[in-house]
Amino acid sequence: MLGCYDTQMEMPVFQLLKRSGAGFLDLLLPPRCPSCKAIVARDGSFCAPCWSRLHFVTAPMCACCGLPFPYSAGDGALCGACAQTPPPFDRARAALVYNGASAGLVLALKHGDRTGLARIMAGMMARAAAPMLAERPLLVPVPLHAARLRTRRFNQAALLAARIARRADLPVLAAALARVRDTPISRSMSRRQRAENVRGAIRVRPGAAARIRGAHVLLVDDVMTTGATAEACARALRRAGAKRIDIVTFARVTHDTVEQG
């Protein structure tokens, strides 16, 4: 009967049924690699070739922006850009280097409607941002302009923020920031042009100002390229009184990578 134990497996019958049901489902819909969709052993896992192409951002790195260094420069070392002009945020971290493999996942989420990837990507981001998450920040996604949101139907940064918040049991303020100007796509722009492109384009919504004032904010986005958008968001949050501003992205462009989308 239900709840009795199988003498050989030492497992409740309902657990056996659950496992056999899952096994039957795997036969019909086997787990697939999130990148190439090859059959894999477990849901959410990558096949070996795709996993080998994911380049994780690990130490040594800039203590501020998280740019990976080719060799250790000591604790608290800054990259040249952060040393010369400190950014308006405190720390930025990314899970992966932006290359062909990580770009494929980003583009599949944003433009391929594969919203299920947000769970996998958020898991990687949570590990990269573990020290930040331990400080119990308020999660805020980078906003999309209303026109682009209507076209895409969802904000990928908001999906990632929601997944991280659920995983870490943290608050998320999805509508804290507004993109008040529909900025042109910055794919072919220089760093200076990108900064000018987003100047004044992002503001804290009046209804969110009280939550932002004095808060430790963790800004969430899918990719950091030059950091222009993240910095524009950080400046808006700083003007609203945020006490500390950290950033986590799924991927980031480095000196050794070329932007692909």
From TrEMBL:
PANTHER family: DNA UTILIZATION PROTEIN YHGH
InterPro entries recorded: ComF/GntX_DNA_util-trans (IPR051910), DZR_2 (IPR044005), PRTase-like (IPR029057), PRTase_dom (IPR000836)
The family this protein is said to belong to: Belongs to the ComF/GntX family.
The protein's name: ComF family protein
Annotated Phosphoribosyltransferase domain residues: 157-258
CDD domains reported for this sequence: PRTases_typeI
Domain annotation Double zinc ribbon: ranges: 24-83
Pfam families referenced in this protein's UniProt entry, alphabetically: DZR_2, Pribosyltran
Native source species: Sphingosinicella soli
